[in-house]
Amino acid sequence: MRMPAPELGLLVATALGFLACSSTSVTNGSLNFTVAESILVLEPDNATVGYVVLSQGTGLCPALQSGLTVIPPQIGNFEYFFILVGVVDANANPLPLTAGSYTIIDPTDPNASFTPPGLLANAAGVQADTTCLGNATYASSGLATLSPFASTDGGSSGLNYSAIVSGTQISGTYTLTTCLVPSTTALADAGTCALCSGGTPDGGPCTIP
């Protein structure tokens, strides 16, 4: 997986603030960008790790296959919603990913609880600036259902999710295209920041070089 720390509960990202809405009570809201692509990223040589990206930019899969990363962001001027998924046995050992409903917990919350075995997820909104810097906004709770689940490159999976982010409940249903990124893919040099171009100020689609 093209990320430095794929362990569930230890999701680390750098980005800018993601959702403008924040409240002590839960309100209904939506992503503040247009989803131009929705992909399921898997490693063909490791069936236990994967993540979903709802992306403002088109061309994300080829960018990841070329060595760019979204954790940490190496694509700037770019917004996305990220769901890291994993399956664990009773001893918290990783198992191959599968279709099913993944419980979303906040990896930054020491009081968040999950008792294995089961399907677990971390979710975060990310808005990378023109230098690819910032902070992630994590979902405090939620559920992400993958069904069907396609592990072949270019395959079609389904996502239905609901998550609470900064007191705002967001949800959606998407068709995901599977993007295989081998673990042997050479990473882009540290400090690389490719800009997503052509987006509009209100979060319209952009193009990843």
Outline:
The chain has 209 residues and is mainly beta. It has one helix at residues 60-65, and strands at residues 27-28, 37-43, 46-55, 57-58, 75-76, 78-88, 94-95, 100-105, 118-128, 137-146, 156-165, 168-180, 194-195, 206-207. The protein has one domain (27-182).
Keywords:
globular; 14 strands; 209 residues; 10-stranded mixed sheet; 1 helix
Question: How would you portray this structure in words?
Answer:
By secondary structure, the chain is mainly beta. 3% of the residues lie in helices and 43% in strands. The longest helix has 6 residues, at 60-65. Residues 1-23 have low confidence and may be disordered.
Task: Please describe the topology of this protein.
Blueprint: E1 27-28, E2 37-43, E3 46-55, E4 57-58, H1 60-65, E5 75-76, E6 78-88, E7 94-95, E8 100-105, E9 118-128, E10 137-146, E11 156-165, E12 168-180, E13 194-195, E14 206-207
Parallel strand pairs: 1-12, 2-12, 4-14, 5-13, 8-9
Antiparallel strand pairs: 2-3, 3-6, 6-7, 6-9, 8-10, 9-10, 10-11, 11-12
